[in-house]
């Protein structure tokens, strides 16, 4: 299996292309066969399922918000299983739950541990997706992400590589620290200082400052299987999708 075989596309990156059907037409036309839906699309799962089926696509992973997971994790698993999803990733703490320091991240980790047991008890896998706010530091020097993952020791981690860098940490060291728990990563990039301002400073993978020549071997070493292309604010979705595929295809 090559990295290209594991390429997926986070549908949040195409949200500005309307309607949903046009997103799938674009991605399928470029050769994508996997996508990662996000919570906003779960309000109409039948529509999402139709697009997956019509275009012969799979959704091995999905982002599901904490509100839905807290309300009913078992029902969430049932919904996701109907879409063929195998792994649920919680994408972020809700606003207002990100700045409380070590105590807040400890409590969240314990809650995620409980939710994870409910999800895995129903036969799906469960993990966390990071942003930069997980890279604040506890009193003992640990990153909040480490606190979170230690409180939920069986939880997987979908490492967002560019957010790790924006948080001031080393993505290679971080994924190696949690080897065995990192089955998926978000493949995204950061533009050189002052560039891509209208795209919030993000770049297409392979067109920014991340050192993929060093990062990719580390991802392969720890057994990453799913490479999810993401750009938080692309001004040209087709360009981003093409470049992401070209970059991942170049990895050996």
Automatic annotation (TrEMBL):
Keywords: Isomerase. It holds the Pfam family AP_endonuc_2. The keyword Isomerase applies. Residues 24-241 form the Xylose isomerase-like TIM barrel domain. The keyword Isomerase applies. Transmembrane segments: none annotated. GO terms for molecular function: isomerase activity. InterPro entries: IolE/XylAMocC-like, Xyl_isomerase-like_sf, Xyl_isomerase-like_TIM-brl. PANTHER family: HYDROXYPYRUVATE ISOMERASE, INOSOSE DEHYDRATASE. This is Sugar phosphate isomerase/epimerase.
């Amino acid at each position: 299996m090559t990295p290209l075989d594991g390429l997926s596309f986070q549908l949040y990156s195409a949200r500005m292309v309307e309607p949903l059907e046009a997103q799938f037409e674009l991605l399928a036309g470029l050769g994508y066969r996997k996508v990662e839906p996000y919570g906003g699309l779960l309000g109409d799962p039948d529509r999402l399922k139709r697009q997956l089926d019509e275009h012969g696509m799979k959704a091995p992973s999905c982002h599901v918000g904490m509100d839905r997971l807290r309300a009913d994790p078992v029902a969430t698993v049932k919904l996701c299983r109907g879409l063929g999803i195998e792994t649920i990733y919680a994408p972020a703490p809700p606003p207002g739950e990100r700045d409380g320091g070590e105590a807040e991240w400890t409590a969240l980790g314990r809650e995620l541990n409980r939710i994870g047991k409910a999800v895995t008890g129903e036969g799906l896998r469960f993990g966390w997706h990071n942003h930069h706010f997980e890279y604040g530091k506890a009193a003992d020097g640990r990153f909040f992400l480490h606190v979170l993952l230690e409180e939920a020791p069986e939880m997987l981690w979908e490492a967002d590589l560019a957010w790790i860098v924006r948080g001031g940490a080393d993505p290679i060291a971080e994924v190696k620290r949690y080897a065995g728990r990192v089955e998926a990563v978000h493949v995204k990039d950061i533009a050189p200082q002052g560039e891509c301002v209208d795209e919030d400073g993000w770049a297409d993978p392979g067109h920014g400052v991340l050192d993929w020549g060093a990062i990719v071997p580390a991802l392969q070493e720890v057994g990453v299987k799913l490479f999810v292309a993401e750009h938080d604010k692309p001004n040209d979705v087709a360009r981003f999708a093409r470049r992401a595929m070209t970059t991942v295809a170049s990895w050996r």
